[in-house]
Design goal:
about 450 residues; mainly alpha; about 75% helix
Length: about 450
């Protein structure tokens, strides 16, 4: 009954948004309230669940998305994105740029795509998915606009690399928590995860995206700027360092635990400076000087640019808030536990069972983290009883937790709204990519299980 209720609510959400053309934020509110009532949440607590879900997800993302939009706008309007795009393309495809600066040749586009995938993978290891998305999207769009390339074809592979690192590799929250729960080894899990992540990214990214070149996409306008003459552009080093400063700061703070510094005050300071919100604020302040004031812009001009950037992402924030409300209603109703209990009765190998439970909870609730941790609680006893490799169980559940992201997942809406796609095209590209990653991850775990005991 619970699964039928969730399925009905998801269908209703899709119909409201795509057929009746209801604003997605309003549609999420309507469906969240209906789902809460149908799943048995007391009528006087439904709105509290909705508000909690919105607050929880916005508490994590509001500052990051707003500051990221401001930084992205500044990187675009200052010409830094143009400089980065030109430098990146020349580095990998210098022979394929003609005298007028235009790109030609499929091989050149593929090299650019692979360069962005590599950047997304490196950046994705220390960053949460949402932060990496906000930071890398302006770079994707700068290349797309500059060289008139298909946005989905160029951008989706980089997002695949971010998603894979989020689901498979420590130190991300879900795999790290699973390693601790199953008493695995963090370094071993990372190595095994790397062995699975690389083919998953290649197949679900560059290979799959070849079928997506004709998907129409006009990416979010806030990252589009008029092309500037060469003498008006910031320097190459300034452009790269400023745009990537958040990544650099986060990577430096991620290394701190391995330096074996015992001073508790130093640890507190590093923890404060390493908080994503503080990192984004520092990066924006630096960019305000290096790409703003230093380039001759007044503070009034910069303030206007920042205001426009926030306006451009306001609807995205509301939609993400709505998806958080829906997720919280499903979580508060206890439906994830009901689903897991029903699936535990299936007679499946433990690694496959972990993947199946995580995948179904992910599809039902939308949260990869909730899916992973819920599945882990169910299959934990089986790991000991059946002598299952704990590191492989971490990866199996991590793969399942990425399956078929759709309308109840905030990542779905981030991608849809930033790339300005229809729901149909978002499912054809984003949802299928996530599902490919999930199945390739399961296959990789199964192959490793043949050789690792």
């Amino acid at each position: 009954m619970a699964l039928l209720t969730i399925f009905t609510c998801i269908v209703l959400l899709v119909l409201l948004v795509s057929w009746i053309k209801v604003n997605p934020f309003i549609a999420f509110l309507i469906v969240s309230i209906i789902a809460g009532l149908l799943l048995g949440i007391p009528i006087n607590k439904v709105t509290a669940s909705v508000q909690k879900g919105m607050g929880d997800i916005l508490g994590q993302l509001l500052i990051i998305i707003c500051l990221g939009a401001m930084l992205g706008k500044l990187v675009a309007t200052s010409g830094a994105a143009q400089k980065i795009a030109e430098s990146l393309v020349k580095a990998v495809s210098k022979k394929n740029i003609n005298a007028t600066g235009e790109l030609h040749g499929n091989t050149s586009a593929q090299r650019i795509q692979l360069a962005l995938v590599a950047a997304g993978f490196i950046i994705g290891i220390p960053l949460f998915y949402g932060i990496g998305f906000v930071l890398m999207v302006p770079l994707i769009f700068s290349v797309v606009y500059k060289y008139k390339l298909p946005a989905v074809y160029i951008g989706l592979p980089m997002l695949a690399s971010l998603s894979v690192t989020h689901g498979f590799l420590p130190p991300h929250p879900s795999p790290s928590a699973l390693v601790a729960l199953f008493h695995g080894n963090m370094a071993t899990t990372f190595i095994y995860g790397l062995m699975i992540a690389i083919p998953a990214i290649i197949l679900a990214g560059p290979v799959f995206s070849r079928f997506l070149k004709k998907i129409p996409s006009e990416p979010l306008a806030t990252f589009r700027a008029e092309e500037l003459p060469e003498d008006k552009l910031p320097g190459t080093a300034n452009s790269f360092l400023t745009a990537l400063l958040p990544v650099i700061l986060l990577m430096l703070t991620a290394l701190f635990p391995y330096l074996n510094i015992q001073d508790p005050d130093a640890a507190k300071i590093i923890a404060f400076l390493g908080d994503p919100s503080i990192v984004m604020l520092i990066a924006l302040l630096v960019a305000t000087f290096t790409l703003g004031v230093k380039q001759g812009k007044t503070m009034g001009q910069l303030a206007g640019s920042f205001t426009d950037a926030v306006k451009d992402v306001a609807l995205i924030l509301l939609i993400i808030a709505g998806s958080g409300a829906f997720k919280e209603v499903l979580t508060a109703s206890g439906v994830s536990t009901q689903i897991a209990d029903q699936l535990q009765a299936l007679n499946l190998p433990p690694l496959l069972l972990g993947w199946v439970i995580a995948a179904i909870i992910r599809i039902s609730l939308g949260s990869a983290t909730v899916a992973g941790l819920t599945a882990a609680g169910i299959v934990a006893p089986l790991v000991i009883q059946n002598h299952v490799n704990p590191n492989l169980m971490v990866l199996s559940i991590g793969a399942g937790s990425l399956a078929f992201s759709h309308v109840n997942d905030s990542g779905f809406w981030l991608y849809k709204e930033y790339f300005n796609l229809s729901i149909k095209d978002t499912i054809k590209s984003w949802s299928v990519m996530e599902t490919l990653v999930s199945f390739i991850g399961l296959i990789g775990v199964s192959i490793l299980n043949l050789f690792i005991k």
